[in-house]
Amino acid sequence: MDINHYLERAALLRRQGYNCCQAVAAALADQTDLSEEQLYQLASGFGLGMGNMEATCGALVGAGLVAGLVTSGKGTVRLTRQISEHFKTTCGAVICKELKGIGTGKVLCPCDQCVRNAVLAYAEVCGLSS
After folding, report:
1. Distances from the Cα of 41 to the Cαs of 22, 38, 51, 92, in angstroms?
2. Overall pTM surpassing 0.85 (yes/no)
């Protein structure tokens, strides 16, 4: 599949009520041996920076979850670091509240764009197989 399919699928899932982590993980379901529903359930606790906006963006966590599944946990820390660096360069931060401008009033990256950027970071670091 074309990268744009994954980018738009993640954004669509987000708009349909998935949290950012769920949207990224489910959009990349065909890269794993799990179903979209299983990934949705697995990622449910990681939206809004683990529920309080203080932690890493859920979209980025979703990309890391998929990377772990694809690599069977071998070398995932290195890949997740690279995904995170790419995401930060693109979005300007990795912490949910910083991305949303909580405290500063300056939104760095809205959720729909965060999920697209997390998928793009995953694709650039891990590749996407069709």
Report:
1. 8, 5, 15, 28
2. yes
